[in-house]
Write a structure and sequence with these properties.
With 379 residues, the protein is of the alpha+beta class. It has 2 domains: 131 residues, Aminopeptidase; 216 residues, Aminopeptidase, CATH 3.40.630.30. The protein has 12 helices and 18 strands. Strands 7-6-17-11-16-15-14-13-12 form a 9-stranded mixed sheet, sandwiched between helices. Helix 7 crosses helix 10. It is globular.
């Protein structure tokens, strides 16, 4: 039983309160847990929430996105890569029970969250060995370089509290919502020479090849998003994914840069008057994400993708980043998987594969939750 002195009070907070708390956190929270992300998702209703201790100090935050069921005023409440709370607390219900009560009062029939809790890590060398091992069909089959025992205890606690782990989406190992497996390059305490030394031989060769060929990587602005989008749709066709509309990226740029002028950057790789590759970079505090990438199939021999990534890594290091995050990777290691090449590319940058706890669901209304699952399966 939680003591009264240890109870936390949850209430809606202003954007300013939410942002100030996020700015004070280290490690930095996900960009998906900032007020601006609600502006990127107009089909969802966004709400900022804060947890307060007995002395009135803000101790946690959450961006909740509410999506209405068709023809019913009931909502799915989604906290992507959140909430931002003390996940080391042995009593997570101190945080989660007030959240569930609040969202039930808002008309939510289910809550989906993505605790930003690391479970396992694999060094770049361990990932390469796993890819070469015919017995390892998935990354989880390979021995990790390190494990976080507290994460498994948290998972068991969540299950006992009535939360259930959402299934990973499909054969590629990506979660249906946010990626469970990502690739990150630690920057904290490392010089740029250290980071360059962590690149594999192919990466270093390709970066030099791009420089010698005259590839120029420049920062773009809102007006360059259509050029990015042209390459992005070509990439979508080549890599077999459904592209988002141009308006999504324009909305993303407007919302994120309004919150902080350097929250989102756009980079373009030029060669002989043509844009060959483009990528977006997001920054929250000391965490930098490579967000979206795009390239043409033409003139790939001048290695614009390596050039653009290395420029982004250099700029991230200059800003004082503690980690450069390549975002999602496949957990499938089979040669037939079309995403294995992307995994190899990211592993070549050095760093480590990271497994998070994944997304978790709490059905507040089991009948509506099941109906929503059926609806989503048929879309």
């Amino acid at each position: 039983m939680t003591s009264a002195a240890a109870r936390l009070h949850l209430r809606p907070v202003s954007r300013a309160e939410h942002l100030a708390f996020a700015d004070s956190r280290r490690p930095s929270p996900s960009h998906l847990q900032l007020p601006s992300w609600g502006d990127v998702k107009p089909d969802w209703r966004a709400e900022s929430l804060g947890w307060f201790d007995g002395e009135g100090r803000m101790a946690g935050s959450a961006l909740v996105l509410l999506r209405a069921l068709p023809r019913v005023k009931r909502y799915l409440a989604y906290l992507p890569e959140g909430p931002v709370i003390d996940w080391h607390d042995p009593e997570p219900e101190r945080w989660l029970d007030p959240l569930l009560a609040h969202l039930k009062g808002r008309g939510a029939f289910a809550v989906k969250m993505g605790p930003p809790v690391v479970v396992r890590r694999w060094s770049a060398e361990a990932v390469k060995e796993a890819i070469a091992d015919p017995a390892a069909r998935r990354l989880r089959d390979a021995p990790p370089t390190s494990e976080e025992p507290g994460a498994l205890a948290l998972a068991e606690r969540l299950r006992r509290l009535g939360w259930r782990q959402a299934a990973d989406g499909g054969e590629d190992g990506f979660a249906a919502g946010q990626p469970r497996y990502v690739f990150q390059v630690p920057f904290a305490g490392r010089s740029l020479d250290d980071i360059r030394g962590g690149l594999n031989q192919q990466w270093r060769r390709n970066v030099k090849k791009a420089e010698k060929a005259g590839v120029k990587v420049v920062r773009g602005g809102y007006e360059d998003l259509p050029a990015f989008y042209t390459l992005y749709t070509e990439t979508a066709g080549r890599d077999r994914f459904l592209p988002r509309p141009l308006a999504y990226f324009q909305r993303m740029w407007t919302a994120l840069t309004a919150e902080h002028p350097d929250r989102m950057r756009l980079y373009l790789a030029h060669h002989d008057g043509e844009v060959l590759a483009a990528a977006t970079m997001l920054t929250v505090g000391d965490h930098v994400w490579y967000s979206y990438g795009a390239s043409t199939g033409r003139r790939r021999e001048v290695q614009p993708n390596n050039a653009i990534q290395w420029r982004m890594m250099c700029d991230a290091h200059e800003t004082g980043a503690a980690v450069y995050d390549f975002r999602g990777i496949t957990d499938t290691l089979e040669e037939s998987n079309h995403l294995l090449g992307l995994l190899r590319f990211k592993v070549g940058a050095g760093g480590e594969a990271v497994e998070y706890l994944g997304e978790w669901d709490f059905p507040l209304n089991r009948l509506l939750h099941k109906a929503f699952d059926v609806y989503m399966a048929r879309r």
